[in-house]
Amino acid sequence: MKKRLVFVFLTLLLFTCSHGKTQHFTSIDDSTDAAQVFIIRNNNLFGWGFSLKVIFNDVVVARLHAGEHISFYVEPGLHTVGTSKSSMTVPCRAGEKYYFLISADYTQFGFEIDRISTQKGENWIAKTKPLK
Predict the structure, then answer these.
(1) Count of domains for the chain
(2) What is the mean pLDDT of the chain?
(3) So what's the pLDDT on residue 24?
């Protein structure tokens, strides 16, 4: 019985810790007429031990640990960016860069996503590691 409980616990732990790009990760090959999107997860201690789902156009494209970021190119147009609890729709233009920061929302015990300025985005990119 004890061994079975340990096995179940370890299995659950593995599922909560999985991270990386999913099979639905989206990026276009030709970036000349595309917008670039950066999604950054801050590196505070809240939720540090598990990965967070990143949703793009209603599909989970990656799972980020604290202190990681992803970037990819998208076709111009309206796109939805977010987490399972919070998202926003943003018009993306060719040749532009868009930065989004995922941080803890202590009032709802979850995470929120905000669009941030290029300067703040570049600062966060320097402090976090890219998801490969």
Answers:
(1) 1
(2) 80
(3) 53
| Selection from 3-7, 11-15, 41-45, 65-69 with the highest mean pLDDT | 65-69
Q: In Å, how far are 71, 92, 109, 114 from 105, measured between CA atoms?
A: 23, 26, 6, 11
Give the CATH number for residue 123.
2.60.40
Backbone angles phi, psi at 43, to 5 degrees: -115, 35
Q: Which domain holds residue 9?
A: 2-130
pLDDT grade for 76, boundaries at 50, 70 and 90? very high
Answer whether 0.85 is exceeded by the pTM: no
The CA-to-CA distance between both ends of the chain, in Å, stands at: 39
Reading the block at residue 57, the tokens are: 């156009």
Looking at the DSSP bridge assignments, the partners of residue 51 are none
At 86, the amino acid letter reads S
Element (DSSP H or E) covering residue 14: helix 2-17
